[in-house]
Amino acid sequence: MASEASNPEAKKLTVEDLPDLLASDNSVKLAGIDVDGILRGKLVSKKKFLSIASSGFGFCSVIFGWDMHDKTYIRELKISNSENGYQDIIAVPDLSTFRRIPWENNVPFFLVSFHDPDTNEPVSACPRGLLKTQLEKLKARGYGAMAGAEYEFYQFKAPTEPSGTSTTSTAAYLRDNAPHTLPALTEGMFGYSLTRPMENKDYYYDIFNTCDTFGCNIEGWHTESGPGVFEAALEFGEIKQMADRASLFKYVVKSVATKYGITPCFMAKPKQGLPGNSGHMHISLVDATSGENLLVRDPPDPDPPYPDVARLSDLGRHFLAGILDGLPDVMPLLAPTVNSYKRLVENFWAPVTVSWGLEHRAAGVRLITPPTAKPAATRLEVRVPGADANPHFVLAALLGLGWRGVERELDLPCPPLGRGEDAGGAGDAGERLARSLGEANARFMRAGSVAREVFGDAFVEHFGGTREHEIRLWEEAVTDWEVRRYIETV
């Protein structure tokens, strides 16, 4: 059964349609997205849902007051804190996101957005609200945006207890065991293998088919180079829907994996010495009415500033320039964890500089134009984000930075990365991106940052504060590496 979310009729739902739509149901599942990209939600009765479908309902603001392990932030932030009693915010269901959860008896599901109870404006840190705000800047000029997402992720088998029995609780296992003892789903490096998926074919096809049923369709699905690594390219679509589907893709993978005793891992760098998990994002601008791609130049420019942009429109050049100009100031949105920066190192096919190039996979932004792509598929592939990033924040950042470039008519800040130049960024590459979350967050939060200009102080102060918390916890942590290195020698 195809998901209602993949049916255009789902986007036209009204509150009046809900009684008939949910006639055979007695409950509804609702979920919003927190700053770490984690779905936070609950199951409610159908009666309750019908009563709040248009007005929204109170949802504890603490989801913006604690981290991914429900630990309140070391420095209390404005949205939710002890002084305001961790007050409710308003969660408003988005009826266009309707789908049914196939692994939970087809229970109806809706995403919500979070609003301030006093102003009814989107909560500054709400990921769906932030992306919507950036998109509205384009819509005011008659533009729209399309996007696509690619995710790589490691997978580990269910750990085995000393008794020989297996458990699906990886977290419980890791309380008493070292992470490197988790067995990989498959061994060795074998990208694009046609045979490796057959070792776990029920799981492999279950994810693909469930994503289709749940309306976060996979366009391409294959093994990547790394033990137990898969990569999924999600179906290209309208940018807000794409961000939702990217978040829901992780939800599907984690839910399906549970019944197979598999733990999927979207950390940016789970294994030292092996490639990390990327979360590449593709983006293009279109005419909001006709859907025409606005990044392509046809016919080609006979005298371009660089041959790489001969098929890129002036709008596209300014949009690319905006992303490159602001990229160093928004790195916490693209690389949000301490671990993110273990992926962004030289010689692992992960870009570490402000760089771009036509069909250049070592660059931070890969430009894709004719003749490689059809004119309608002209786009930018931003290769900096990892699989650990919140897709709503990544796409909001790219949209906001790119649009700033259009409004300011910015020129490209550096020439394209030369052929043969690697991700280390010698030669034509621009500045080196942050080497740590602390370095990235200091730039993000500094007075006059591009992030403050694009997103406003309220968002920067909140999200930057959440990253300060993450950094503080890391600074206080005593790692296995430290103990092994110093326990006997110092």
TrEMBL record:
Q: List the GO molecular function terms.
A: ATP binding; glutamine synthetase activity
Print the keywords alphabetically. ATP-binding, Ligase, Nucleotide-binding
Q: Which residues cross the membrane?
A: none
Q: Record's InterPro entries?
A: Gln_synt_N_sf, Gln_synth/guanido_kin_cat_dom, Gln_synth_cat_dom
In terms of domain of life, where is this protein from? Eukaryota
Q: Which residues form the GS catalytic domain?
A: 127-490
Where does the signal sequence lie?
none
Q: Which GO terms describe its biological process?
A: biogenic amine metabolic process; glutamine biosynthetic process
Quote the Pfam families the UniProt record gives: Gln-synt_C
Family per UniProt? Belongs to the glutamine synthetase family.
Protein name in the entry: Glutamine synthetase
Taxonomic source organism: Phialemonium atrogriseum
Lineage of source species: Eukaryota, Fungi, Dikarya, Ascomycota, Pezizomycotina
